[in-house]
Every structure is written in C-alpha cells, then in structure tokens.
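Known limitations

Structure tokens in this collection are predictions and should be treated as such. Users comparing against experimental data should check residue numbering before alignment. To illustrate the layout, the record for DUF2225 domain-containing protein is reproduced below. The input appears on top and the generated tokens appear beneath it.
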Amino acid sequence: MNDTNILNHLFDKQTVCPVCDSHFKVKTVKSKSPRVTSKDSDFFIRYSVINPYFYDVIICNSCGYAAMKSDFEKIKSHKKELVLSNVTPKWKPREYPIILDEKSAIERYKLSLLNAVLIGLPESTKGMISLKIAWMYRLLNNNEQENLFLKQALDGFNSAYTNEIFPIYGLQRDSLMYLLGELNRKLDNSQDALLWFSRTIVSTNSSAKVKEMARIGKDLIKNTNN
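Generated tokens:
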C-alpha cells in the first residue's frame, strides 16, 4: 500500500499529557480501517490495510512520558512525580515519521517499557508491552529478539497472575492461564506449559473456547515429543 493510502486511514487526535499538561496531536488509526487476517495462538492479531499496533504508544515529546494508549491517561499522581524526576531529565525529544512500521513501533514500545520500569508500573503492564514488542519482532522474523521479549512477557504475567486483580488487559483468569501455557510452549518449557494448559482445562470457570485452545496446545507438545 502506498503512503497516500495509509494516510487515509489515520487522523490527528488532540491529546494532553497527564504529566506535564503539554498539548499535542497523535496519529490515530480510524476504527474501521484495520482488517483482521488471522490470529496467532498467543492472541497476536494480524492485520491488513493498516496495523494499529504500530500506533499503540503515545509519547509526550516535552517530558518523555510514554505509555500504551489504554494506560496513557491512567497514570497516578505519585507516578507523575517519578516521570518528572526519573524520565524527563534524560529525555531528548525525537521526531517519528507519520507512517510508522515495525522498527519504529519497537522503539516506541521500548520507550513505554522504560517508563514502566522507571516509575514502577504493575508487572502486567511490563508483561503486555513486552508481549507486543515480541509480536513486532515476529513480523520481522527475528526469532531471537522475539523469544527474549516473550520471556519478559512470561515473567510479567506470572507475577500478575498471582498478585493482580482480574481482568488484566481484558484477559480473564482462564485466558491468562492459557496464555501462560502458550508462552511456555513457545519457549520450549514443555512441563510448565502442560501444567498451565491442564489447569485451564479442568477449571470450572474456563470458557469452552479457551479450553479448546489449551487442548490444542497440549496436543502440539505431545506431537512434538513423540
């Protein structure tokens, strides 16, 4: 798709930074523009026409605060002070092209991950950002970096499962149990994967769809090991 066509699927949205009150515009994907082509086993959605993952991070060029769109305005007051003391002094403003790709998306997600680490956001936030970085590396067929960030995502979600309140980024307990199984499977942690898949299948709170996904995961491991 040429650049003009991609621009037709974007619009400018006025945004106010919740940390420093700067006003700026962010490129936003029109809601009806992306076309889902398929879904991977770890909930990664593949799109045609335009990829909304590329535009999922908002960055304030004034103070350096960066977060996924779902989190950008949710920052708590004491975390704002941490941005101003831990992020802003090191921040160098940067310009991104209007049309983003995998590599620029990775850089932007990594900025939001750095913010999450520096201001102590929940493990689920670090886990979700890491998962999305892994997905971007998957689009680039960079298996080494994909697996590195899948491992970070697994660590974050393991902690979140035990310590945080559901739903977590739209995932109910059964979906996160399954995802923990699937991330372990992708990382060749077969025993841990089987444990999570089994817990998903026997849970009375698991939906039929999630149980079926867990059964598929178990079968993949058994077929690989046979």
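For this record: The radius of gyration is 19 Å. The mean pLDDT is 96. Please report discrepancies through the issue tracker.
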